[in-house]
Amino acid sequence: MSDRKKRKGKTDIRETARREVRALTKEELYKASATKYRSRGLHGMNLAVVLCATLAAAIIAASVLCILKIDRPQRTRRTDIEQSFTADSNAEEERAKEKLAFTYITKSAADVHSGYLILVNFENEYVPEAASEITDIYSGKTSSYSVAYNNYKLDSFVLERFNEFMDDLSGVTGDTCVLVNSSYRSVEEQTVLAKEYRNLYGDEYVEKYVATPGYSEHHTGMALDLTTRYSDGSTVPMRDYANLETLNKIGVDHGFVTRYPENKYSYTKINTEPWHYRYVGVPHATVMTENNLCLEEYVTYLKDYTADGEIMLTSEDGTLEKVSASELTGNTGYAVYYVSAVDESGALAAQTKIPIPESCESYEISGNNSDGFIVTVKLKEAVS
Question: Which residue in the list 273, 297, 310, 327 is annotated as catalytic?
Answer without folding.
Answer: 273
